[in-house]
Amino acid sequence: MEQKNNKGVLLVNLGTPDEPTPQAVKRFLSQFLHDKRVVDTSRWIWCPVLHGIILPKRSPKVARLYQSIWMDEGSPLMVYSKRQAQKLEKESGLPVELGMTYGNPSMLSGVQKLLDRDVEQVVVLPLYPQYSGTTTGAVEDALEGAFAKLEKRLEHTLVKGYFDHELYIKALAESVRKHWNENGQADYLLCSYHGIPQRYADNGDDYPKECKRTTELLAQELGLTDAQIGMSFQSRFGKEEWVKPYTDATLESLPDQGIGSLDIITPAFSADCLETLEEISEECREIFQSAGGGDYRYIPCLNDDDVHIQMMAELVSV
């Protein structure tokens, strides 16, 4: 039952283009790559490069990639996010709205919808298990921006991460076991996390440490040794050094280490999206098999899995 004049939930993810077209992708990438949390290069240097080179070249290419994964209901990230919100509202008994850091529905839209539902206190749940200034930090900025545009400021609590939450680890482990039951267990389980520049970690961003801890806890839950599970970082952008080991380099090296078959999971992603369905499921398969690897199986994100929703309900019960 919806609780009037009480608490509500703003479920947040990064966002997605509205359509798989160059124009829509360009709008989305422009907003995303203008964020100083994502790219902290001087605007005098970055903006001409972004608008003169990167957006014109990348937007058509990225649009084609989105077209290859687009679902009947829309972008996979948005489809799963809506399902998560619907299930979480039912599970928690609280009003739940979506707000994306970039694109639509915006953070402002999500907060306004909660106000329209008479919510006075909001739990903001960014679906980033491991905290990083580039993701959860950007959510904080966007939330402050939304409040600045509203006449009423909501009391709010921000969930800053859940990389070691018992139900999160349990949900990951259950997804792996389900995959093994259906497909058999591969020689190795690789946990691929979205990367960040090494400089950010050097300056105090604990994201890589939290990714490592998630991997350790998942290994314990599954009873895997260091020879059976590992971690890496994907989705590098630009020429700067990013946190290592890199996923592509790891995939190239595994066959030489006697790894003939591989299961790969993306624990930092709460919903399937371009980086999981195209980069990890397709591009990385080619890298592994071109290096001499055999069976390569992608384990989907937790999406709207029941244990995942139960974990969210516990997180917003604060």
Description of the molecule:
With 318 residues, this protein is α/β, with parallel strands linked by helices. 48% of the residues lie in helices and 13% in strands. It has eleven helices and eight strands. The protein has helices at 22-34, 43-69, 76-92, 107-116, 136-149, 166-183, 198-202, 207-222, 247-253, 274-290, 306-315; strands spanning 7-13, 96-100, 121-126, 155-158, 188-194, 229-234, 262-265, 296-298. Strands 2-1-3-4 form a four-stranded parallel β-sheet, sandwiched between helices. Helix 10 (274-290) links the parallel strand 7 and strand 8. The longest helix has 27 residues, at 43-69. The radius of gyration is 20 Å and the shape is globular. The model has no long low-confidence stretch (mean pLDDT 95).
